[in-house]
């Protein structure tokens, strides 16, 4: 059975590549360039992360992924 989970992708203005949220239990949030190390989370958790870290220099978006249950 497949479930849909979410990853938070960050695009910083002035940087070339995107980053993904790796950990949310610390401040500031830890990010990584590697998609495989990104934190897979539920939709409500991902939306909360986006609200807490989005600002004028950083654009955050949800990326859906399919995972085995």
Short description:
The chain is an alpha+beta fold and 69 residues long. Helix content is 16%, strand content 43%. The protein has one domain (2-68).
Write up this protein:
With 69 residues, the protein is an alpha+beta fold. It has one domain (2-68). 16% of the residues lie in helices and 43% in strands. The protein contains one helix and four strands. The protein has one helix spanning 43-53, and strands spanning 2-12, 19-23, 30-32, 58-68. The chain has a four-stranded antiparallel sheet with strand order 3-2-1-4, covered by helices on one side. The longest helix has 11 residues, at 43-53. It is globular, with a radius of gyration of 12 Å. The model has no long low-confidence stretch (mean pLDDT 88).
Q: Helix and strand succession?
A: EEEHE
Uncertain stretches of 5 or more adjacent residues: none
Q: Over the alpha carbons, how many angstroms does the gyration radius reach?
A: 12 Å
Mean pLDDT: 88
Structure summary, number of beta strands: 4
**Strands of the biggest beta sheet: in what spatial order?**
3-2-1-4
- Total number of domains: 1
- Share in β-strands: 35-45%
**Main sheet, how many strands, which sense, barrel?**
4 strands, antiparallel
Give the helix proportion (percent range). Answer: 10-25%
The helix tally amounts to: 1
The CA-CA distance between the termini, in Å, is: 6 Å
Shape descriptor: globular
Q: Which structural class do the helices and strands define?
A: alpha+beta
């Amino acid at each position: 059975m497949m479930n849909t989970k979410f990853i938070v992708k960050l695009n910083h203005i002035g940087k070339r590549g995107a980053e993904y949220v790796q950990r949310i239990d610390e401040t500031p949030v830890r990010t990584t360039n590697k998609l495989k190390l990104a934190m897979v989370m539920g939709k409500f958790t991902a939306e909360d992360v986006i609200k807490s870290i989005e600002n004028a220099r950083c654009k955050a978006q949800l990326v859906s992924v399919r995972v085995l249950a």
